Amino acid sequence: MTAMQILFLGVGIAAVLSAMLVVTVRNLIHAALWLVVTLFSVAITFVLLDAGFLATVQVVLYIGAIAILIIFGIMLTRRVMMSDVGPQVNASWWLGALLSILLFATVTWVVLQMDWPSLPTTDLSMTLNELGHSLVDPDKYVLPFELASIMLIVALIGAIAIAWPGKESQ
Amino acid sequence: MMPQFDVGNIGAYLYELIGWSLSLLGIQASMITFIQKLVGGLVLVNFVLLTPIFTIWLERKFLARFQDRLGPNRVGPYGLFQSFADVVKLITKEDITPAGADKVVYNIGPVLSVVSVIGIWTVIPFASTMVGANINVGILYSVAIGALGTLAIMMGGWSSNNKYALLGAFRTAAQLVSYEVPLIVALLVPTMLAGSMGMNDIVEAQSVWFIISAPIAALVFLVASIAEVGRTPFDLLEAESEIVAGFHIEYSGMKFGLWMLGEFAHAFTISALTAVLFLGGWRGPLVDQFPILGIFYFLAKTYFVYLFTLWIRVTLPRIRIDQMNDLNWKFLVPLSLAMLVMMSVVYKAVPSGVSEAIRSLVLFSANLALIVASLGLLARASRKLQVAEQVNIDMSRARAPANLSALQILLLALGAVAFLAIFVIATQLVLGLTT
User: Where are the domains of chain B?
Assistant: First the structure.
C-alpha cells in the first residue's frame, strides 16, 4: 500500500466517523464542530484527488463562512444549548433506518457494477484557468453565473431592507 | 545517484540528499517522497514557531526605543535571552482549566489558532526553488487557512464557560469576519496583475513591484491584515488597559502562551505575505545566479514590513468599536471595491504591447487619482461634520445618510435588478455577436 492510499483511507474513515458524530452527539456546539471536521476531511480528499481549487473553496465557504454562521446561530439562540432536549429519535426512526440502508445498498451495488472508465491523462495544472474561462463563456455558463450574481445582489439588498431601522424607531 | 552540491540551491540539494540516503536503505520510492516532505514540513514549522522568540525581543526593544526606554536589557547581551526566560516562565506556570469548561474544545482552541498561522507558510516562497507547495490557488489557500483562526477563537471563547470570554469571542469574530472583506478584495489585485493565484507566479510577475502599480491595494491589504491580527490600533478586542482580556481570559500558562504565539506568528506572517504579494518576494539583484540569495531578500523585506507595522503600533492610539466598524464598512470596503473596478478597467485599457514600466506608471497614476478623489471626499465629509458640530445639530442625524423609506428601498432593489438584467442581456448580445 502506498503512502497515498494510507492517507486516503485515514481521511475517509475520519470523514465518515465525524459525519456520524454530527447527528449522534447531544451537544449542539459539538455537533457543529464535528461538522467542521467532516468538511475538512472532504477538503483533504479533494486535495488527494488533485482538485486543489475545490479543496480551498470547500474550506473558505463551508468552514470559513457556513460553519462559523451555524456556530454563531447556535450560540446566539436562547435555550437551544440546554442538555434536556428530549429523545433523539421519533416514532418513524425505523423508516429512516430502512431508507438509509436501502440507499447505502443501492450506492454500493452501483459502485460495484459500474465499469469505471480510467481518467484521461491530461494536464491538471491549467484546470483553474479553464474554469474561469467557462464561467464567462457565452457558450458555457455565463447565464447561470450572472443569474447567481443577481440572486446574491437581491439577497444583499433584502438583508439591508430588513435590517434598516426605519423612521418609527427614531 | 548522489546529488551534486550547489551553493546557490542548497535547499534542493539537502532535499535530494535526504532522498538519496534513504534510497540507500532500500525504502520504497513513494515512502521516500513522503519522508522528504515530512522533514521539509518539520523545518518549516520550526522556523515559524521559533521566529516569534526573536521577534518578541525585537518588538519590545523597538517599541522601547520609540518610547525613550531601554527595553529588556538584563538577560543576556542586549536582553536577547529575555524571551527564553519568558517561555520558561509560561511553561512552568500552573495550568488552570475553569470549572464547567468544555475540556477538549478548550484545549484544541489555542492549538488550532497556531495551526492556522503555520498553514499559511506552506505556500509562501522563500526563494524561487524553496517553497513548501507551489499550488496554483496559493492566495485562496492562505485565506482558507486563515478562516480556521476565527473558528479557533470561537472555540476558545465558548468553551471557557465564562460570559466575558464568550462576549470577547463575539467581538473578535465580528472584527475578523468584517475585515476579511476588504482583505480579499485587495488580494484580487495581485491575482489580476499576475494572472495567477500561485504565490511563486505572483513573485515572478513582479519585474516591477506591485506596490508601484497597486499602492491602494497594498495599503488596504496591510490595514486589513493588521486588523486581522488584532494589534494596535485594532487591539480593542483585548485592550489591556480597559478590560482584562478578550476571549482568552480564562487561559493560563502555556495555553495562554499559545494564543500569544499565534498572534506574534500571525503578525510576522502578514508581513511575509505583504512582502511576497507587493514587494517582490525573493526578487533582488543576482538572484538568477544564486537562488539562495532569495531567502535573504525575502526575509529583509519581511522584516522591513514587520518594523513598519510596529511603527504603526507605537504611533496610533487604540480605536473604539464604532470607529472600527466605520473604518471598515464606510471607508475600506467602498475604497477597495472602487479600486478593483478602476484597476481592472485601466489594466485592460493599457494595450498589451507596452513595456512593464509604462504599464505600472499608468496604473500608479490611476491609483494616485483615486487617492486624491477619496481624500477629497473625506475632507468634504469632515467639513460637513464640523459645520454640524458648530450649529449643534444632532450628531447622529448629520453622520447617518438620509433615511430611506421601504418604498425607496424597493425601488432601489428593482432598479439594481433591472440594471443587472440589462447588463447580462447586453453582454450576451455583444459576446454572441463577436464569437
Answer: 1-92, 93-351, 406-434
